[in-house]
Amino acid sequence: LPCLSASVDAEAYEGYLCVIPGYALADIYDRFGSRLLEGNVRAFLSTTGKVNKGIQQTLQRDPEMFFAYNNGIAATASRVSIESGASGLRVKSATDFQIVNGGQTTASIAYARRKGGSTLDGVFVQMKLSVIDGERAGAFVPLISRYSNSQNKVSEADFFANHDFHRQIEKISRRLRAPAGKGSQVESFWFYERARGQYSVELNRLGAAERKRFELESPRAQIITKTDLAKIENSWRKLPHEVSRGAQKNFLSFAQHITSEWERDSSIFHDEYFRCLVVKMILFRTLEKLIPKEDWYDGGYRANLVTFSIAKLVDLIERSSKGYTFNFTQVWKSQELTEATVAQLRLISHAAYLVITKPEAGIQNVTEWCKKELCWQRLKSAHVPMLAEFESGLLDKDYLMSRNRSAKADAIVDSGVDALKEVMAFGHANWESVRRRASEGHALTPGEDKLIRVATNSKWFPSDKQSRDLVRLLNRLRDDGFAPR
């Protein structure tokens, strides 16, 4: 196996980075079976699990991308034979070979050949090989197995952070100015942080004068984070019990919803969507300030009260005012809630407080009670009157739908134009450079390679769809380190 020496000068340890063909790994597993995995913490978990199922799909559909998608395996041996030649170092043999991390990968590859009929052509696996002599193996091999299997998990929410949805919201937030609020003469931006700490990064790279202007136009009070967005959207979707389960679980729930919506029709995430998002944020933060000032509030559970109150407001409007919806347009223009809306929220938040602080029999903890859908059902059925002055300020649904249709049409045109500009501005030479680097790193599917190859042609002019596909591809390659930012 071709390899690189990766160890420091140490008596107790040698390390090598290798690439092993999939068929060779399958051969070894078929011959030695579970004996190969005695140093592993798990046996094969079947092909029905999420990770193993994904491995099978890659082996069947995109075998040439397996090296790029899979983290590889970690193995140990008590002794290795290394040969040096014109092409570099090669591992010729390994004694007491054990796979201590990557047993699922190994067994999945063997299963794909034996049961799935895969030839494993083009499948390669990266391998970290640690050589520990027999005397020290008893002490070090269990530690290698333990630590290589206990790395921090990358959550689904972390993967979703780079979804095109976030890029779209970020782009709109940098372009769309909000009207000047009360006591201000300056139009401002609501700054969406697609990446944590993005606001500080932007601020710190500016000089003193530019910094002052940036803080004036994009005040800290108008930062919207990804978790903020998930909380306000799921609250508005009447899922306060999901929001109450914590930022990570709520974000995952939101990610699943948005991914589905994006795949169904990404053009619905337009300027008007962002305006409504800002209004929901204003409502959310107003409630956060309002609740602690209420006479009935004795501290605690504010986060739960906010999300349940918003959900109840949405439900109250839907039940009581057919054909009408919250007046997003009015709040966007003034950048604050009306007195009637604040009065309505005070009534609702008090009702929410009475429900969440009286858990169902058998549930002692208020926080746990708020995570139950039954808690939300209790608040839904609680009577809260709709104030006449609030109802009179609601917006006709047809008007909002008309604005959304217009914004959607504009977004479709704008996305094509923006993508075309970005593709052409990147330049044919850069596309060629990126294609070469990505190809060397096995980061392109055949379809992607074909598309990016076309982009290297100086006589070619892309369609809107090709432009959008290329921008999405470029963003992914940037995240993976194959293209400059």
SSE topology:
Elements: E1 2-5, E2 14-21, H1 22-32, H2 50-61, H3 66-69, E3 73-77, E4 79-85, E5 88-95, E6 98-101, H4 103-114, E7 124-131, H5 134-148, H6 156-160, H7 164-175, E8 191-193, H8 198-204, H9 208-217, E9 223-225, H10 226-236, H11 240-243, H12 247-264, H13 271-290, H14 302-320, E10 324-325, H15 328-334, H16 339-356, H17 366-370, H18 373-381, H19 388-391, E11 395-396, H20 397-426, H21 428-440, H22 446-455, H23 464-479
Helix pairs in contact: 1-4, 2-4, 10-12, 10-13, 10-14, 13-14, 13-15, 14-16, 20-23, 21-22
What is the structure about, briefly put?
The chain contains 23 helices and eleven strands. With 485 residues, it is of the alpha+beta class. It has a seven-stranded mixed β-sheet. A two-stranded parallel ribbon has the order 8-9.
Main beta-sheet annotation: 7 strands, mixed
Sum up the overall morphology in one term: globular
Q: Report the radius of gyration as a whole number of Å.
A: 28 Å
- The total beta strand count reads 11
Helix percent reads 55-70%
Instruction: Give the CA-CA distance, first to last residue.
Output: 35 Å
Main structural class: alpha+beta
Structure description:
There is one protein chain. The chain has 485 residues and is of the alpha+beta class. It contains 23 helices and eleven strands. Helix 10 (226-236) packs across helix 13 (271-290). It is globular, with a radius of gyration of 28 Å. The two termini are 35 Å apart. Residues 41-50 have low confidence and may be disordered.
